[in-house]
Design goal:
The protein contains 9 helices and 17 strands. It is α+β, with helices and mostly antiparallel strands. The longest helix has 16 residues. The chain has an 8-stranded antiparallel β-sheet. The chain has a 4-stranded antiparallel β-sheet with strand order 1-9-10-17, with no helix packed on it. It has a 3-stranded antiparallel β-sheet with strand order 4-6-5.
Length: 305
């Protein structure tokens, strides 16, 4: 849902595309850092394998199929801690334990509208479940039967991981685009936001050392009886969010931008107001069904039509 409008001088950058987290990940670096691309490829494959809940070998699957303490690598441990923290700060509107709910809607297999009774049962399961953390052992344990699904934060967290990786190796100017979660460093970048209903730009934002993340109903959805159902579910009622058709969040970190664009997309304008109060450092652009825009005060200084 984003289009990168400002690039390095054509004489200097190199861009490579990788596949992971069910999306394409583009990384652009100055030519002298070409040797880092194989390492980036390794990181994409490593963490995609660890966090993919549909892989029988992943850590997420191990957690979802056990109630024992599962030891984790430090990145996965910190990812889960951040997911749970953001769930608490959004009063559950960002929900990492939404896997069973996603399965009821069949977005990874055959999309369908679930039976309301099944939704009610799964929502009760989510309310009765949590993740426990052992800081000393870097281990977690699942309490209850709800299943982890990190689709609303994993891309953003991985962008943060790549930002740290590149900065530790002395790269100061780079671009990362992980399926619409974009971080540009070292200059002011102009990022185009695609219209969720038209084949054109909605507008553009100018950012530097910030992450831009867009969630929308135009990527994974189906229509039934004249209704459009998308994959960003409200964990309070079990149904896709209805107020917004696209939400863009600008934040200092990818994990924060990714999770909040997901949560706001699932919510409504009242929830958006509460998010702006809880996270004063973010900027939000939300598109309503009628095409009207809702811009936070800080977004007004960044967004251009």
């Amino acid at each position: 849902m984003v289009l990168l409008l400002s690039l390095f001088s054509s004489a200097t950058p190199l861009r490579r595309t990788f596949f992971g987290f069910d999306t394409f990940i583009e990384v652009e670096l100055p030519r002298k850092y070409i040797s880092l691309f194989p390492e980036i490829d390794r990181l994409v494959r490593q963490y995609d394998a660890l966090w993919n809940r549909f892989s029988s070998e992943s850590l997420i699957t191990r957690i979802n199929t056990s109630h024992l303490w599962i030891p984790l690598d430090s990145e996965t441990f910190h990812l889960l801690k951040e997911a749970v923290t953001l769930s608490e700060k959004t009063r559950g509107m960002f929900c990492p334990l939404i896997g069973g709910l996603m399965d009821l809607w069949g977005f990874s297999t055959t999309p369908r509208v679930p039976d309301p009774r099944d939704l009610a049962r799964e929502l009760q399961v989510i309310r009765e479940s949590t993740i426990m953390f052992d800081e000393e052992r870097k281990a977690v344990a699942r309490v209850g039967e709800a299943k982890l699904d990190l689709g609303g934060i994993a891309k953003g967290y991985f962008v943060d991981l790549l930002v740290r990786f590149l900065r530790e190796r002395g790269v100061t100017r780079f671009l990362i685009n992980a399926g619409g979660t974009v971080f540009g460093a070292g200059k002011t970048w102009e990022v185009g936001i695609l219209h969720p209903r038209k084949r054109e730009l909605l507008g553009r934002v100018k950012v530097r050392n910030l992450c831009v993340s867009t969630s929308a109903d135009s990527f994974r959805f189906f229509e039934k009886d004249g209704n459009r159902y998308h994959h960003i579910l409200n964990p309070k009622n079990g149904y896709p969010g209805k107020t917004f058709i696209s939400v863009t969040v600008i934040a200092p970190r990818g994990s924060l931008a990714d999770a909040l664009s997901t949560a706001i997309m699932a919510g409504d304008e009242v929830f958006l107001s509460s998010v702006l109060g809880e996270f004063p450092g973010i900027a939000v652009l939300a598109v309503k069904e009628d095409g009207s825009l809702v811009l936070s005060p800080s977004m007004r200084g960044l967004f251009q039509r």
